Amino acid sequence: MQLDTKPLIDAIDRLIAKANSDLENSLESEGYVAAKDAVIYINSIEDGITALLNDNTDNLLESLKNEKNVSEFISGTWQQIKGNTELPEALEKLFFEKFDEMMHIFTKSWLIKEVPVLANVDDRITKSGEAFVKEWSSKLADLMHLSTNQQIENILTKAVKNNWSIDDLQKGIEDSGIRECGYRARRVAVTETLRLESYAQLESMIQNPLCYKKRWVHTGQQKGESRQLHIYTYDRGGVNGQEVFKREKFKWDGYEADCPRDIYLPASETVNCHCIMETIQDENIFGMSDDELKNLRQEMMDEADTEFDNKGND
Questions:
Q1: Given pLDDT bands bounded at 50, 70 and 90, which one contains residue 272?
Q2: What is the pLDDT of residues 187-202, one digit of tens each?
Q3: ∠ CA 137-138-143 to the nearest 5 degrees?
Q4: Of 107, 109, 171, 293, which residue is the least packed, with the fewest Cβ within 10 Å?
């Protein structure tokens, strides 16, 4: 008898749709722009990571079929596998494609939110914005590759300690949860999409003629998981409410950051962080014509690009 799975699939689809809708509403309530696009990218990145990690595990399990014992596998085939660049290269390609798209979409959305008259300008980003996308795509891919290898080596260490056979090792990998990477992929997808929101907001501030300062804001949406120093105001040693010039860094408890989820912050300060920034406007700019604002935006971007080039030549 053939089971009719359509009702089950429809039910799952409704659950997924509800989860996406809830996430979109949450992002909107926290002040993020292009929330619908953000959820689309979260799902796309999650699916991409899951497929690549599962393929990597499948290839590992396939390679074990021709091995005689665990020791020979570790000293031979495993050394070749863990040095293979196929996974990090595939991850980097995935990240660069998605991050580049998000950087342009989110930057333009943030800019329009703050300065509606700039809706018709191009979606160019500064050289520092482009460098961030390239640098972080590569670094994140390497970090995920190293983390994946470490998971496998932990299993190999257990295999040696317990004198596992190749069959035991195969079962150990299959039962370890490595193939069930849904939570890991989802967490990375959400964190990185919100990171792109922050860097795009920073990029929009650099381009925004009206912005001269930025303010760190804890959204209050993640109360059960929030970091105390993201809730505490500056006078209590935290960062919430701190104001700095738009191209300067926030500072708290020994940390420095251009924006929430800065790539140079440790994971303890970025994973599942839902903080955001607010624009502080320069009242002296008010009253400028649309053309003057567009020209000033171009001048600010050119200035930022020149500064970036000069830093590279230092």
A1: confident
A2: 899 889 999 999 999 9
A3: 100
A4: 171
